[in-house]
């Protein structure tokens, strides 16, 4: 299985980089996983609604350019469906069973995802009703993907 994580912005925090690198290393025996960063759109702290949409639009165009036409796209969005770790594992297992070997998870910037990216997605996934920094979400996502593969293989993993 080929998994890409398309995400907005550069990761700066060393502790997040180390955590993500650790899970990517662990994942290497289960799947090919790559993180694709697209630049975030520079914008002032306070934006009008129109300006917010323009930022999401520009970031969305960069995201869409990185998505393979045959990828099954899972957008991380607060309004998405919440799943347990076991349900995520089951979803990934079913995708593999039905020939969907390219999966792309998409993490938007601080303002979220454009409507075009949401329309391109095959499903929307929410990790919580809470808002998380999009940089931290990368670490949470790679850990959950790792956990899903452990569950699929019936291997032990702490609860």
UniProtKB/TrEMBL annotation:
Q: Give the binding site residues for S-adenosyl-L-methionine.
A: 76, 108, 127-132
- Methyltransferase listed as a keyword: yes
The UniProt entry lists the main location of this chain as cytoplasm
What this protein catalyses is: pseudouridine(1915) in 23S rRNA + S-adenosyl-L-methionine = N(3)-methylpseudouridine(1915) in 23S rRNA + S-adenosyl-L-homocysteine + H(+)
Q: Which CDD domains match?
A: RlmH-like
Listed PANTHER family = METHYLTRANSFERASE, RIBOSOMAL RNA LARGE SUBUNIT METHYLTRANSFERASE H
Role description: Specifically methylates the pseudouridine at position 1915 (m3Psi1915) in 23S rRNA.
Name the record gives this protein: Ribosomal RNA large subunit methyltransferase H
Organism from which the protein derives: Bacillus methanolicus (strain MGA3 / ATCC 53907)
Underlying gene: rlmH
